[in-house]
């Protein structure tokens, strides 16, 4: 019995690891997965094939086939390709990979990615780790691996993929204005090991060099700190509206009321003013990199 790329064991028992189950609270995602599952089942029955026969042909267990067809399991792209070939769908099942591409990621990540995709300006202050949009895969993987209770490896990889997908914001045209403030401490803490940190610092220098991106560092020697209550995220949109969130304000929940947004804008402006400017910050990151 061998383990394949989607975390399922090929063989008669059809066991599989967690990480690709459908979130029952994700109604829109569950609907997409259920539709895809029904299509696979329809093609299988039209081919006069039993679930166990399809599984054997594809190299999966019967149980996994039933889970996918019943909308309880999110099929991987390679599963859709295999089903397409096995059932002679001539690309019709494989084409549904696009339908399930987004729902592979948790609902809250999809919603955040949609907001980020629509934002014309994004400002964040991070005080416990490097902001997710700036993370390398290695750094993100190290962070998820530290979560307790421990994540299964499949769930870690799923979370890393979702975080990396959000970074498509750097490729948007027209480019949004992106501003990040990071605590000095997160630049020095070797989460994942020194080599992971070095790669992360090098990545910050690359991203910080983009014309629409500013990366600032909040030094530990500051006697005044407007972000002492926790991280802040503020997204502004083309129509003049905005959405924000702060660990230390409004219970940490997302807000869009203009008065609440002004409070977050004030805090964000103060944090940026108290931090090193972008040029000083770049030199500081280069210094930390040299010391790592």
Write a structural description.
The chain has twelve helices and seven strands. The chain has 292 residues and is of the alpha/beta class. The strands form two sheets. It has a five-stranded mixed β-sheet with strand order 5-4-3-6-7, with helices on both faces. A two-stranded antiparallel ribbon has the order 1-2. Helix 2 packs across helix 3 and helix 7 crosses helix 8.
Concise structural overview:
The chain is an alpha/beta fold.
Descriptors:
two-stranded antiparallel sheet; 292 residues; disordered N terminus; 12 helices; 47% helix
Radius of gyration: 23 Å
Low-confidence stretches: 1-19
Sheet of most strands: 5 strands, mixed
β-sheet strand percentage: 5-15%
- Spatial strand arrangement across the major sheet: 5-4-3-6-7
SS-derived structural category: alpha/beta
**What is the N-to-C succession of helices and strands?**
EEHHHHHHEHHEHHEEEHH
Query: Overall pLDDT, averaged?
Result: 88
Give the overall form.
elongated
Helix fraction, binned, reads 40-55%
N-C termini distance: 43 Å
SSE blueprint and pairings:
Blueprint: E1 2-3, E2 9-10, H1 27-46, H2 51-58, H3 62-69, H4 77-86, H5 97-101, H6 107-118, E3 119-126, H7 137-145, H8 153-166, E4 177-183, H9 184-188, H10 194-208, E5 213-218, E6 232-237, E7 242-246, H11 258-274, H12 278-291
Parallel strand pairs: 3-4, 4-5
Antiparallel strand pairs: 1-2, 3-6, 6-7
Helix pairs in contact: 2-3, 6-8, 7-8, 10-12
């Amino acid at each position: 019995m061998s383990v394949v790329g989607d975390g399922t064991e090929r063989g008669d028992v059809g066991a599989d690891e967690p990480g690709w189950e459908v979130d029952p609270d994700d109604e829109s995602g569950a609907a997409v997965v259920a539709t895809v599952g029904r299509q696979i089942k329809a093609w299988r029955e039209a081919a006069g094939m039993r679930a166990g026969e399809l599984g054997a042909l594809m190299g999966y267990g019967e149980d996994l086939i039933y889970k996918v067809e019943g909308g309880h399991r999110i099929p991987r792209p390679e599963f859709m390709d295999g089903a397409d070939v096995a059932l002679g769908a001539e690309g019709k099942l494989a084409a549904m990979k696009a339908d399930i591409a987004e729902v592979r990621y948790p609902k809250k990540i999809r919603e955040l990615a949609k907001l980020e995709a629509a934002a014309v300006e994004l400002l964040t202050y991070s005080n416990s780790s490097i902001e997710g949009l700036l993370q390398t895969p290695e750094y993100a993987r190290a962070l998820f691996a530290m979560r307790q209770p421990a994540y299964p490896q499949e769930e870690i990889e799923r979370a890393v993929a979702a975080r990396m997908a959000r970074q498509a914001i750097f490729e948007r045209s027209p480019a949004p204005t992106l501003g990040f403030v990071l605590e000095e401490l997160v630049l020095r803490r070797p989460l994942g090991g020194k080599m992971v940190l070095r790669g992360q610092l090098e990545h910050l220098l690359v991203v910080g060099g983009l014309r629409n991106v500013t990366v600032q560092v909040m030094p530990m020697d500051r006697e005044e700190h407007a972000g002492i209550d926790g991280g802040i995220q503020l997204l502004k949109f083309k129509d003049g509206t905005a959405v924000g969130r702060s660990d230390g304000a409004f219970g940490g929940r997302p807000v869009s009321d203009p008065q609440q947004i002004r409070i977050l804008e004030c805090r964000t402006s103060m944090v940026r003013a108290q931090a090193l400017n972008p040029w000083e910050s770049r030199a500081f990151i280069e210094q930390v990199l040299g010391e790592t």
